[in-house]
User: Which sequence fits this backbone?
């Protein structure tokens, strides 16, 4: 029988449906946690790495006792009915199993009580995350805008000027979006405006198409009778941009004739959400093991993915009192956004 390689063991630990946290035995600082651990604690490994047990959990005395016994006895320890409260999360009852590996102590958590997650997965700590992301995004924008303006004086072709115009438009949108991200989790902007969804879709198609292989074809099929939507244009544009970008990445080499379809329709019997936007690709499809949790943060099937894009899409759609749906099978994945028209929208993005 073939043995299991170390890479496979690491992947098994990554995919375990229970949180697993690994600490440096001397410093008690977090060195690694799996996807389930990231979802449970509501943050990524990058932001949690280096934190102590006390920084991760309120009232971690019992957990520290298990940790110390594991180090002292150099053997696994099990604790039952441990009450833990992760930072910014609800209290939960769990069974904790510890293990020793080289210079590290690992903790496995079997959650026995139901943990309540807020409807908006980014509420907790969202302000700090937003400010950090906004800072990283806004810094280079001024330089990019300046470079684009300098290039405008040197180009002569209409096509080049059109592309520069697209760059400048996107810089403006990203700047506004970054300013909103600084307020992510705080009070939202106070006004919605009427949005032509078809113009938004065409703009997204231009942005994506300008940076991908010409082998990928776009098919647009819009319902001309669709009414104006009411919402925040920048955040909806970003949500659709994320979905189309994901669709392009999903094509990979699986599709012989890679194609993305952008469609709209009016759903008459849709519980007050008549505007439907569909982004469809003919790629390999979403793996079954992540399909039911694809909108959760830090859940991704991409090798280099962070698992934040679809969670942000879900946040934006929810803020518009809409719904997002996904259907997927090999050869066809459909993301559908359902939005209200005017009546029914009372909160702002």
Assistant:
């Amino acid at each position: 029988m073939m043995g299991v390689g170390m890479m496979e063991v690491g992947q098994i630990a990554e995919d375990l449906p229970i949180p697993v946290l690994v600490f440096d035995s001397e410093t008690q600082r977090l060195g690694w946690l799996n996807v389930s651990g990231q979802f449970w604690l509501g943050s990524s490994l990058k932001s949690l790495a280096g934190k102590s047990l006390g920084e991760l959990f309120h009232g971690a005395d019992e957990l520290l006792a298990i940790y110390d016994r594991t180090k002292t006895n150099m053997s696994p320890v099990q604790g039952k009915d441990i009450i833990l409260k992760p930072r910014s999360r609800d209290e939960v009852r769990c069974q904790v199993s510890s293990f020793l590996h080289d210079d590290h102590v690992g903790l496995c958590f079997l959650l026995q009580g139901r943990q309540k997650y807020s409807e908006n997965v980014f509420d907790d700590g969202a302000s700090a995350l937003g400010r950090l992301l906004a800072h990283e995004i806004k810094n280079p924008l001024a330089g990019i805008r300046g470079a684009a303006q300098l290039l405008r004086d040197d180009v002569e072709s209409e096509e080049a000027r059109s592309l520069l115009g697209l760059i400048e438009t996107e810089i403006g949108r990203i700047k506004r979006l970054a300013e909103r991200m600084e307020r992510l989790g705080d009070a939202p902007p106070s006004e919605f405006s009427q949005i032509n969804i078809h113009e938004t879709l065409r703009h997204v198609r231009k942005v994506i198409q300008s940076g991908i292989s010409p082998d990928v074809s776009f098919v647009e099929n819009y319902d001309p009778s669709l009414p104006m939507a009411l919402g925040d244009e920048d955040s909806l544009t970003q949500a659709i941009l994320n979905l189309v970008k994901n669709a392009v990445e999903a094509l990979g080499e699986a599709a012989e004739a890679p194609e993305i379809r952008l469609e709209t329709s009016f759903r008459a019997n849709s519980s007050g959400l008549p505007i439907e936007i569909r982004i469809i690709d003919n790629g390999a499809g979403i793996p079954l093991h992540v399909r039911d949790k694809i909108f959760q943060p830090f859940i991704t099937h991409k090798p280099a993915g962070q698992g934040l894009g679809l969670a942000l899409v879900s946040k934006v759609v929810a803020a518009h009192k809409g719904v997002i749906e996904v259907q997927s099978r090999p050869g066809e994945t459909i993301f559908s956004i359902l939005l209200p028209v005017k009546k029914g929208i009372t909160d702002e993005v």
